[in-house]
Amino acid sequence: MAYPANVAQVQLDKITKQFDGVTAVEDIDLEIADREFMILLGPSGCGKSTLLRMIAGLEDPTEGTVTIGGRVVNDILPKDRDVAMVFQSYALYPHKTVQANIEFPLKVRGIDKVERAKAAQVAADSLGLGEYMQRKPGALSGGQRQRVALARAIVRNPAVFCMDEPLSNLDAKLRGETRAELIALHQRLESTFIYVTHDQVEAMTMGSRIAVMSRGHIEQVGTPQQVYDRPASVFIAQFVGTPPMNILPAGSVEPGEHLVGVRPEHLRITADGPISMVVTLVEQLGHELLVTGMVGESRVVVREAAHAAMPAIGSTVHLDAEVAMRHRFSALTERRIDV
Amino acid sequence: MSKRVGRPAARRWRDFGLAVAMLAPSGVILGMFVIYPLVKAIFLGRQRCGVTSCRTTSWHQYVDAFRSNEFQDALIVTIKYALITVPIGLALGVGLAVLADKYIKGVGIFRTIFSSTVATSVAVASVMWFFLLNPNVGVIADWLGGTAKTPGFLQDPGTALWAVSASSIWANLGFTFIVVTAGLQSVPKDLYESAYVDGANGFTRFTNVTLPMISPVLLFVTVVLTARAFEGFGEIDLLTEGGPKAKTTTLTYLAYGRGLPTSGDDGLRATVTVLLFFVLLVLALIQFRGLEKRVHYGN
Lengths: 339, 299
Fold this sequence. Notes:
The structure holds 2 protein chains of 2 kinds. Chain A is an alpha+beta fold. Chain A has helices at 48-56, 98-108, 113-126, 142-154, 172-189, 200-206, 224-229, 234-239, and strands at 10-19, 22-32, 37-41, 63-68, 71-72, 83-86, 160-164, 192-197, 209-214, 217-222, 246-248, 259-262, 267-270, 275-284, 288-295, 298-305, 316-321, 327-329, 336-337. Chain A has 2 domains: 10-235, Rossmann fold (3-Layer(aba) Sandwich); 247-337, CATH 2.40.50.140. In chain A, the strands form 4 sheets. Chain A has a 6-stranded mixed β-sheet with strand order 6-7-8-3-9-10, with helices on both faces. Chain A has a 5-stranded antiparallel β-sheet with strand order 13-17-14-15-16, with no helix packed on it. Chain A starts with 9 loop residues before the first strand and ends with a strand. Chain B is mainly alpha-helical. Chain B has a single domain, classed as MetI-like fold, CATH 1.10.3720.10. Chain B has a two-stranded antiparallel ribbon with strand order 1-2.
């Protein structure tokens, strides 16, 4: 089923999924615009892969509707949803050559041999795989296999790409390189990308918007900067950002019953700040200095300039944060309080 | 010029001695129970034996036995028997394993039923099929009538081999089912999901994912079922005693059966058995050479 060329909007309405009485995803509403790069971010077990699989058609929602291009697709087979999927393990057929792997979706659709070969070559060349066509996946590196999986998705020219942690099996250097390639690919293909990851660096650098999930719910949807600057809950505040946001106990920074969150880069070691911290660790990273310590029972990290004075371990320092850089959360619900 | 660096000679000898010592137990068992009996049988195969003594003939006894009508007929029957039991047994075993490879309630009962024949001895299976196919009391004879009733599948030269094959296929079904089921567990689920998303139907997924991924298991089962077909004796002895009209006399039965030219002659039995060994050896080589290129190992 092909959608009109400029409509690959995905809408999720009241989506719930239960497995044998266990709720994996509950009451999710999400709208993904046409050609958007949407990231589903969250820790393991939060339901992000389940949500992606329902969009692709590999799982059926227990309740709710999935709409693609304005059409409800709950009862439509995956092959007719015009959705391609890239799996975490790449799911390459080990007994087929790279060419046969890339051609497979077209072969299943009855495309003739010559057309298939041409389309496969174009997809492979676009990802630098042209010279590997007769190799089998076992003879490829991890990065090459990942590109074969992408080529197999691209060759179908789908409206929506679903990617389930495709970079998680790559080493850090390759991950960084491939991130850039994926961003370029998204811009070139002008398709909707729905990308699942637990890596907040991927989420922040790649997505046009992020949906942060926890325990089967969407906690917040926004641009990477919005999620970073105004996290909707303590969970998001500590999940997004490295090092995570410091959550200081009620009353330690300012009067009140609420929790106060401050990013490490917004805390300053001063002579007379209101917060006392016992230093437990000092890490000189070259481009910055990280000072870790205890404020009461809470662990706090301060990001200082690379050449700032290094406090002694065991010493007590004083911290302060600008009022505008403080985030306030309810101690009861841990949700953001906007003052 | 660079000097090749190797282990010192003393260490190599020590390692060699250690290797021999570790291989010795297996070597002794292999020698006692495989190589010695084989060599002994080869030499026995050029003798003719009566009740009390044996006389040596010549190595030509092997040629004469191979060229004899009885051996050639038995070889053809054995090949037919294998061509019936192996493909059908494999297809049924794979089919049932694929059907039972589902996560639905109650499927465990079916898995138990399908694999249960592995616990059945050849004798029990043969006796069971003997009664099922019996023209007077068997339910199959009652259902089907015709040849099943008169003279009976086991008694008709045209159907006797098929009837014995049915018993063998049934008895081996559990083994095939269990081994193939184990092989199916090793197929990554996301290969099926990827094919499903790409639009492959059940048959396409079966031919493009299942069969290639379990090909090592299929090769193993094929080799074992073929060997069993060539070595089959119990079901033939209990169901047809090699008849009617030698239509179910396989090579193994020719070697050990009752009322045959080899009866009472250990020398001639050894001749037939050694010839069977070489037939199986050639067959195994053909199977591995021919089929192994179609087998995919590893992921």
